[in-house]
Amino acid sequence: MYFKSLSDLSKDIHTWIPKIEENYDCVVGIPRSGMLVANILALKMSLPLADLDGFLEGRMLGLGKRFEHIDAADFLKQPRKVLIVDDSISSGHAIRHAKAKIEAANPGHDLTFAAVYVTPKGKKLCDLYVEEIPNPRRFEWNILASRAVKNYCFDLDGVLCLDPTNEQNDDGERYREFILSAKSLYVPADEIGAIVTSRLEKFRPETEQWLKEQGIRYGALHMLNLPSKQDRIRLKAAPSFKAEVFKKSNADLFIESEHNQAVKIAELSGKFVYALDTVTIHGPGHVSALIERKKMQTSKQWRRQLARIKNVPGKLLRILKLRS
């Protein structure tokens, strides 16, 4: 599985800008993720910015200092060179829809379509792109908002809601009160495949009530069937329980709140796990790739050290000659 963080996106856009040969008059983003890219490009290139619908209606979100002498209402009345961007193109549904809307509006501008990341199929639908990344792939900025959540397992505390404090996490009445009034954190718009939590089975009624009140739809709710919090801690049951459920499921990604548990779940299940707190993917291929990078770094360090060692005798001889 390929993964890109927001940091990766920013760096990739930064390296892309010097390679953009044309001089564009404005940047237009395809909602919603395309607006993220369009904002970065417009700011770095000092260009006016618009969303797709606004552009087609002749509106700009802002012209900036470079174009402050131009009336925003008149900017698109003249033919412009326009860069229309999205974050990625996979199947091509979003960009085809955008092109259809533009064709129907016939705005009369010189248009270039671009994306940061494309699949082999998607690259045929744009004029410019930064990197070809085949599926499966996930991006930090929409990993929890994607329709793919139907194929995910979700942790609960620290993902769907905030973690309880030490005082709230008493395995009794305070914890029940926490569950019923917990602040929601990430609430997917679509139904998620399953919730797999180390909350104890005895808290199922309160958990189901809270999920219903938050409008969180899910296929199944798996809870740990142990008598007490102390038993869960003593047996270190949380990661093994989650890994077992995940491994038996058809889900292709587990959303876990805590890094160390994510690493353990990936190791035990042999499948991909996303650690929300460190914004990292763990699973087959990613671990080995990390090891290879470390090997390469170590190899480079040894080569530099050897090069320095080889130069030592010559330096010593020169010093000895000077002293003699």
Instruction: Give me the oligomer status.
Output: single chain
Q: What general outline do the C-alpha atoms trace?
A: elongated
Q: Helicity range of the residues?
A: 40-55%
What does the radius of gyration come to? 26 Å
CATH topology of the largest domain: Rossmann fold
User: Structural class, from helix and strand content?
Assistant: alpha/beta
Hey, roughly how much beta strand do the residues contain? Answer: 15-25%
Distance between the termini: 64 Å
CATH architecture identity of the largest domain: 3-Layer(aba) Sandwich
Biggest beta-sheet profile:
6 strands, mixed
Which keywords apply here?
2 domains, 10 helices, Rossmann fold, 324 residues, elongated, 13 strands, 19% strand, six-stranded mixed beta sheet, alpha/beta, disordered C terminus, five-stranded parallel beta sheet
